Amino acid sequence: MQSKLVKSANEVQRQALTLSSAVTSGNLIVVAISSWRDGTAQISSITDNKGNTYYRALDALDPRNVNHILSIWYAPNVIGGTSFTITTNAPTGAIQAITVAAHEYRGMRTSSVLDTTHSNYGTSVSATSGLTMFTSQTNELVFGASLHEEDANPSITAGTNYAIKQKMTNGLYNEPLISEDRIVVLTGQYEATFTWSSSVRWINAVAVFKGL
C-alpha cells in the first residue's frame, strides 16, 4: 500500500500531509511523527479531512533530551477517498519542527487492531525499540519508527526482515524520521531495529497491529 513523508519548513503549530493516491475505505492508516521543540516536544492530536478518529499507539521520549518526541498514531477502518489529508497538531502555543509519515495498510482488523507496543532510546550505531510483549495472534503487521537527535545526516539501514517505508535522516534544521515494517505469521516478541552509519543518539518505537 502507499505511504508518504512530509516535513515542516520551520517550526509550526500543525503539519498537513496529503496522500498521493485515493485511500480505500476500511483500511488502516498508521502515522509516525517526529518532533523537536525548544522545550518539551508534544503531539496533541491527529485529524483528517474525512472525519476519521486517530488513536495514540505510543509516545517515545529520551529523558536525556525531552526536546525530541517520536510518536505512532493509527486510524482503523477509515472512511477513504481522494485528496486524503492528515493533519498533525501540536498543543496550542507549542510551535515545533514536525516530520510526518503516513502509511495505508489493507487486510487489517477494523476494530481492536492494536496488539502491543514498545520503545527505547540510546546512543550507538545499532538502534532497537526493545522487545514487545508476546503478540496475541498470528498474521500481524510490525511497524517500526526511529529518529536521531544529531545535527548530522547519517545513513540508515532497516532491521533484518524489515523494509524501509519512508526516510528523512537529515538532522540539520529538520527532525529526522524513518519508518519500516514487516508482516509476521507467528506469535512472539518483536522489536524494530535499525543500523545507523555512525553512532548517534536515537529513539526507536514499535507498534504491532492485528491482521484479519
Key terms:
globular, about 210 residues, mainly beta, 6-stranded antiparallel β-sheet, 5-stranded antiparallel β-sheet
Commentary on this structure:
- The protein is mainly beta.
- The mean pLDDT is 96.
- It has one domain.
- The chain is globular and about 40 Å long.
- The chain has strands at residues 3-7, 14-18, 28-36, 45-48, 55-61, 68-75, 85-89, 97-105, 114-128, 140-148, 156-158, 163-168, 177-184, 193-210.
- It has no helices and 14 strands.
- The strands form three sheets. Strands 9, 10, 11, 12, 13 and 14 form a six-stranded antiparallel sheet that branches.
- 0% of the residues lie in helices and 52% in strands.
What would the principal axes of the Cα set say about the shape? Answer: globular
What's the number of helices?
0
Largest sheet: 6 strands, antiparallel
Over the alpha carbons, how many angstroms does the gyration radius reach? 16 Å
Number of domains: 1
User: Could you tell me the mean pLDDT?
Assistant: 96
Query: Hey, roughly how much beta strand do the residues contain?
Result: over 45%
| Secondary structure category | mainly beta
User: Percent helix among the residues?
Assistant: under 10%
- Could you tell me how far the N terminus lies from the C terminus, measured between alpha carbons in angstroms? 16 Å
List the secondary-structure elements in sequence, H or E: EEEEEEEEEEEEEE
Extended strand count? 14
In short:
The protein has 212 residues and is an all-beta fold. 0% of the residues lie in helices and 52% in strands.
What's the topology here?
Blueprint (H helix, E strand, L loop, with lengths): L2 E5 L6 E5 L9 E9 L8 E4 L6 E7 L6 E8 L9 E5 L7 E9 L8 E15 L11 E9 L7 E3 L4 E6 L8 E8 L8 E18 L2
